[in-house]
Amino acid sequence: MYKAKIQITFKNGVLDPQGSAVKQALHHLGFVSVKDVRIGRLVEILISSQTPLDAENQIKQMCEQLLANPVIEEYRVLSLEEIE
Amino acid sequence: MYKAKIQITFKNGVLDPQGSAVKQALHHLGFVSVKDVRIGRLVEILISSQTPLDAENQIKQMCEQLLANPVIEEYRVLSLEEIE
């Protein structure tokens, strides 16, 4: 069994309305030193596989087929660890 | 100027409907070896501050006041780096 942690963020230059909204809210709370906020997703997947390489390949396919929108998002596998 | 990367995830035991929906979708795509999916948020904040300690304190306050719902979520500051 393997546990993967995947980071999915907007590509540079893509507008992040949620990030802008959070930035405004933080300013209203008095955190005026905040210059920019970007919000992405963190996906943790538990997957049974024979080898780490097979697990990683499946994870990449999942990102490309479903998890990340290739037009506006990019993904990065932050970690892939074997668990009991 | 400092850049913080914050991970916000559901506490253990809290139902993750989005994660369950993604797991089902992955199974439909043929990724039947997926056992569990948990989805969290990744917040990147750019903040101007005199010291790293001050930046970290402000980041923690932002998490506790706005970014993370203390009832069902937990946060972790993954990184805090000075940038030009």
Automatic annotation (TrEMBL), chains A, B:
Originating gene: purS
Record-level GO cellular component terms: cytoplasm
Lineage, highest ranks first: Bacteria, Thermotogati, Thermotogota, Thermotogae, Thermotogales
Annotated organism of origin: Pseudothermotoga lettingae (strain ATCC BAA-301 / DSM 14385 / NBRC 107922 / TMO)
Reactions catalysed: N(2)-formyl-N(1)-(5-phospho-beta-D-ribosyl)glycinamide + L-glutamine + ATP + H2O = 2-formamido-N(1)-(5-O-phospho-beta-D-ribosyl)acetamidine + L-glutamate + ADP + phosphate + H(+)
EC number in record: 6.3.5.3
Protein name (record): Phosphoribosylformylglycinamidine synthase subunit PurS
KW Disulfide bond (keyword) present: no
Keywords carried by this UniProt record: ATP-binding, Cytoplasm, Ligase, Nucleotide-binding, Purine biosynthesis
Family: Belongs to the PurS family.
Main location: cytoplasm
